[in-house]
Amino acid sequence: MFSFESLRNAFASNIVRTTTKPNLPPPTTHNAASPPINLMRGWPNPSLLPADLIREAANKALSDTTIATAGLLYGPDPGYEPCREAIATWLTDFYRSADNAAPVTASRLCITGGASQNLGSMLAVYSDPSYTRNIWIVAPAYMLAFRIFEDAGFGEKMKGIPEDDKGIDLAALRRGLEKSEEEARRRKGSERPVYKPERKRAKVYKHVLYCVPTFSNPSSRTMSLQHRTELVRIAREYDVLLIADDVYDFLQWPADASADGSFDAAMRTAYLPRLVDIDRDLEGGADRPDADGFGNACANGSFSKIVGPGVRVGWVEGTDKFTYGPPAAPPRT
């Protein structure tokens, strides 16, 4: 299988190649046969697509029966274990490189069909269109997320929270949450989920908040550390599931290359912790007193932004309990 190191190096070399070309004069003639470049679609330059690496990885994996057989059978529900372990190591290097940071483990990860598909899957498990008060969306927001919320039954329950210069207007969010809770207290039938049975493997959150904390789409803003920390505290206070589309975090590079002309050093480590990291580390995390173990934040990741848009494979990170439910009870003897 190809390594994440080889992918990152290929991506970095392409950035250097495409950003260090000298400024060329405009062409003197226009080729009418050449179609215009559509910048609205956000498609990468085809030269960035690692077809050779994917072909090499596929050939290597499918030629090894110990990998091919396990990979093509049903396998474990959270996903192919060696893949989850490799992703965990990669995420640890990028997000948890501090000496005192607990590493990302495979048990905190579940393989998904990409960030958009997994957004719908998480709503199916962790929300109830009758009990869950609102879907809070940091605006402006990724346009395709709205249809996913509508399909989950929240067409009339979506609420926008504006960005501020630090990424989210926390005062507006708190006012909205308090008003929503007041309305729920006056409304009969909102005390417990209606469409989801009580399950030990999952819970239903009162609120869901969707955001893109780093390089937000479409504003490109990055939420500050102070706002990220306070957002986690608010989520705990009001029983909010924070769904963070952490799909752009790896697409970072400085304005200027380092002395050796590379961007590699700046791409090795995240500048800010994710919401899921803060929720894990802050004041005892999901194991603090009175917490239920599911946590209040998850990181929705995807290879589509760092390998190719057609690679519809991703992962979600949360607490062990969030990604796969609590451990099964031992059989009775």
From TrEMBL:
Residue ranges occupied by any Aminotransferase class I/classII large domain in the UniProt entry: 57-320
Entries under SUPFAM superfamilies matching the protein: PLP-dependent transferases (SSF53383)
Superkingdom, taxonomy of origin: Eukaryota
Keyword terms, alphabetized: Aminotransferase, Transferase
Start and end residues of each stretch annotated as Disordered: 18-37
Gene3D superfamilies reported in the protein's UniProt record: Aspartate Aminotransferase, domain 1, Type I PLP-dependent aspartate aminotransferase-like (Major domain)
Protein name: Valine--pyruvate aminotransferase
